[in-house]
TrEMBL record, chain A:
Gene3D superfamilies from the UniProt entry: P-loop containing nucleotide triphosphate hydrolases (3.40.50.300)
Protein name according to UniProt: Nuclease SbcCD subunit C
Keyword match Coiled coil: yes
Family statement: Belongs to the SMC family. SbcC subfamily.
Pfam families recorded: AAA_23 (PF13476)
PANTHER family for the chain: ABC TRANSPORTER ABCH.3
Domain Rad50/SbcC-type AAA span(s) in chain numbering: 6-259
Classification of source organism: Bacteria, Bacillati, Actinomycetota, Actinomycetes, Micrococcales
Coiled coil: 222-327
Biological processes annotated in GO: double-strand break repair
TrEMBL record, chain B:
Name of the protein this chain belongs to: Uncharacterized protein
Length: 654, 127
């Protein structure tokens, strides 16, 4: 199976419709999504899981309500459609799987979902009937083993915790995972069906021989052994039910304890936010004080516009007065020239005698009349006024500074309000989730003790059942061999008996071979990932005890947390690799807690893949400049997830 | 307002009084962080009234604040030549109280910025 495209409609932080190409080649099989926390990496992983299986889990493994994945902004638009489409290829055929629904927010925080729909179409073909879709998808990649392929950092933590748990719990866990990868639950069902078939056949044969009133002893023995077997099986079924209930209680307690870790994270997030709020408040106070000083110093700001207009007016007045002065000066000069001509009889410019005195006197009179009309000016007053108004001319720059400052203040306050709101939200969550850790841990130990007792009882009963089953089968064969039994019935009984034997033998040998296969693959993977030269691999013993091997191939059960993380990653990787031929490996923030050396190991391992790998990483675990080389050119597609608003993100080609 | 010669200040007030309502507004302006002192806020209110040409308001004889006109030297000098007026302290008292009354509602409701309270436009718009 390879994913070609995912389309989202109002999913998580992705408002509206978004399509992301995912198809890659064997030469460059890695699809890399880079994004900081909270941008939507996990929402994309959940979109894939939900689209395939119609349900998804929270990071602590508990089922996640679908309404939490509907885009919040879209919900505010009213009745909203949401959904996810996956285009994928499997064994050369292309399919489109689309899952959708409608949502409406009845009141804040209360979302009602309706019109759930799922649709699977092969390329160019007719849609499959809806009832068949789960079975078809399960056949492509079983839900049972899908978490070996679609996992996040939290799942790694959960696996890691189980592997570090007490010996019997860890052994049980490893065995259960190996059986999941092999598909052993299916074989168990097959064995059970054969048992029923065999029992029915033998019972029928026993009725036949009883009717002949011969072999009464044999009949009696068979019926007694059969009754006893039924009794043991009934006890086994009951104890298995109890075991399931205890398993669930253990899982619930584990989840509760995982929440304690979350609470710790929330506590530290709140503490950081409180520090940030304190710093921001100091900053806000500083900005406010600066603003107050500015408004105090520039007391005239409220009239700055008027003062600027007054300044402009004064400048215009000064210009007009200057022009008037220039006119007056021109007229006075002309009058002076004419008067000189009249008194000397000679033109002062050219030195020629003046002939027309009458004309000159008329000109003088005209000039004097014009001069009389030019208003007398006092430019000094305007100049003085201009001098007084000029200090206010800086008003525009000061006002702009104040506007900028007010904007900074507004932003700082909005950001701080958001921080405070998150603090309140965290406080509410913390106060609602304050489990008694000691009591939870004691309870968990009790349950594990109960589980151990149940496992012991099951082992005893299993042994007894095997012995009884063997007796019943033996007696059944004896009955089948009586001459009164029909030859065809005898052959059928024999065939079923042989099939039972074959399944029983296969069961153990399949599991054994799968264990060895997983051990070899995990060992190889562990050696690629580890930075510790003293280790030589991983061992999974016959009784499913997993450990790291030192340089002398001795099992090491006490290893550091870092080595245990690598052991876990190698184990999950091997389970995936051994369970199906090909499926995309989708990892959400898988390297968050690894050091640089181990991160390099994981990236180098990813670079060896030829099948699709979808990797969601944040900047703390992957730096494009530093780490792209480790993927050795295997990146087929690279995207960044960017925040548009607090509740919206978009995916961009990097 | 075109006569730049400062008139001789005659028979002006030596103290400048505010009404109780004005005093409340001034106190809020300081509390809200818009000004360092109530005196600064009063001057700004007066300048707003000057710009808006707000009519004078009645000042009851009791209550409110009482400032010495010497505290407002810069503004009084300004009003003397800018308006011009021979009684700048009296004018300042009228303008300050009128401006405070004008902005009172916004200040009391809170949540406004300095530029919103004093209706100061961004420079591009004033240009």
């Amino acid at each position: 199976m390879q994913l070609s495209e995912i389309s989202l409609d109002n999913w998580g932080p992705f408002y509206g419709k978004h399509s992301i190409e995912l198809d890659v080649t064997a030469a460059s099989p890695v699809v890399l999504f880079r994004a900081e926390n909270g941008r939507g990496k996990t929402s994309l992983l959940r979109a894939i899981v939900w689209c395939l299986y119609g349900s998804m889990s929270d990071q602590d493994g508990t089922p996640l309500d679908l309404d939490r994945m509907v885009n919040v902004d879209a919900l505010q638009d009213g009745d909203v459609k949401f959904g996810v489409s996956l285009r994928f290829t499997h064994k050369g055929a292309e399919y489109v799987l689309h899952r959708s629904g409608s949502a409406i927010e009845d009141r804040p925080g209360k979302v009602t979902l309706s019109h759930p729909a799922v649709d699977l179409k092969p390329a160019g073909g007719q849609p499959f009937p809806a009832a068949q879709i789960p079975e078809i998808i399960d056949g492509i990649l079983s839900r049972e083993i899908s978490d070996f392929f679609f996992f996040d950092g939290e799942m790694l933590n959960s696996f890691e915790k189980r592997l570090r748990d007490d010996q019997s719990t860890s052994q049980g866990f490893v065995r259960a995972q190996v059986e999941r990868a092999l598909g052993l639950p299916f074989m168990t069902m097959l064995a059970s069906d054969l048992d029923v078939l065999q029992s029915d056949l033998t019972t029928n044969l026993e009725i036949v021989i009883r009717k002949t009133q011969k072999h009464a002893g044999l009949s009696e023995k068979y019926l007694k052994a059969k009754d006893e077997l039924q009794g043991v099986e009934s006890d086994l079924a009951e104890i298995r039910t109890q075991e399931k209930a205890v398993d669930k209680e253990i899982a619930d307690l584990d989840a509760e304890l995982a929440k304690v870790d979350q609470i710790k994270d929330l506590f530290f997030e709140r503490k950081n936010l409180e520090d940030e709020v304190a710093k921001a408040e100091t900053n806000i106070s500083d900005l406010q004080a600066w603003l107050a000083r500015e408004s105090e110093k520039n007391w005239w700001l409220a009239a700055a516009g008027t003062l600027k207009a007054a300044l402009d007016d004064a400048e215009a007045e000064r210009d007009a007065l200057t022009e008037t002065e220039r006119q007056r000066y021109g007229l006075e000069f002309q009058i002076g020239q004419v008067e000189k001509q009249l008194s000397s009889g000679v033109c002062p410019s050219c030195g020629q005698p003046t002939h027309d005195e009458h004309e000159k006197r008329a000109e003088l009179e005209k000039l004097n009349a014009e001069l009389a009309e030019v208003p007398s000016t006092s430019i000094g007053d305007v100049t003085a006024r201009l001098g007084r108004l000029r200090p206010f001319s800086a008003g525009a720059a000061t006002i702009q500074r104040i506007f900028d400052l007010e904007q900074d203040l507004r932003r700082a306050k909005v950001h701080n309000d958001r921080r405070k709101s998150r603090i309140s939200e965290i406080s509410e969550r913390i106060s609602d989730n304050t489990p008694d850790i000691g009591s939870l841990e004691r309870n968990l130990l009790d349950k594990k003790d109960t589980k151990r007792r149940i496992s012991n009882a099951l082992a005893v009963l299993d042994e007894k059942r095997a012995s009884l089953k063997s007796s019943v089968q033996d007696l059944g064969s004896q009955i089948a061999n009586q001459p009164e039994v029909d030859e065809t019935e005898r052959r059928l009984q024999k065939t079923v008996s042989e099939a039972q034997e074959l399944v029983a033998k296969s069961y153990d040998s399949f599991r054994q071979s799968m264990r060895e296969n997983i051990q070899a693959t995990a060992s190889d993977l562990f050696m690629r990932l580890t930075t510790e030269p003293d280790y030589t691999g991983i061992s999974i013993t016959d009784d499913y005890l997993i450990s790291v091997l030192d340089h002398d191939h001795h099992q090491q059960y006490m290893v550091s947390a870092g080595v245990n993380q690598i052991l876990t990653t190698a184990f999950i990787g091997a389970l995936g690799e051994c369970s199906v031929e090909e499926a995309p490996l989708v990892m959400d923030t898988p390297m968050g807690r690894l050091d640089v050396g181990h991160r390099s190991g994981v990236l180098k391992w990813v670079s060896t893949f030829t099948s699709q790998v979808i990797l969601f990483v944040q900047s703390g675990e992957y730096d494009p400049d530093r780490d792209a080389g480790l993927l050795a050119g295997k990146i087929g597609r690279e995207y960044t997830i960017n925040r548009l608003t607090e509740r919206r993100s978009e995916v961009k080609v990097a | 307002m075109s006569d730049v010669t400062s008139p001789a200040v005659v028979d002006d007030k030596t103290n400048i009084r505010t009404s109780e309502a004005t005093a409340d507004v001034l106190e809020l302006l300081v509390k809200q962080g818009h000004f360092v002192t109530q005196l600064g806020a009063f001057q700004a209110a007066a300048m707003l009234a000057l710009r808006k040409e707000l009519p004078a308001v009645d000042i009851p004889s009791a209550g409110g604040l009482n400032y010495n006109q010497g505290s407002f030297k810069q503004v009084i000098d300004f009003l003397t030549w800018y308006v011009p007026t021979p009684t700048p302290a009296r004018l300042l008292e009228q303008l300050g109280n009128a401006g405070a009354a004008y902005i009172g509602e916004k200040v009391r409701s809170g949540g406004y910025t300095l530029t919103e309270i004093f209706e100061i436009a961004q420079p591009d718009a004033t240009a």
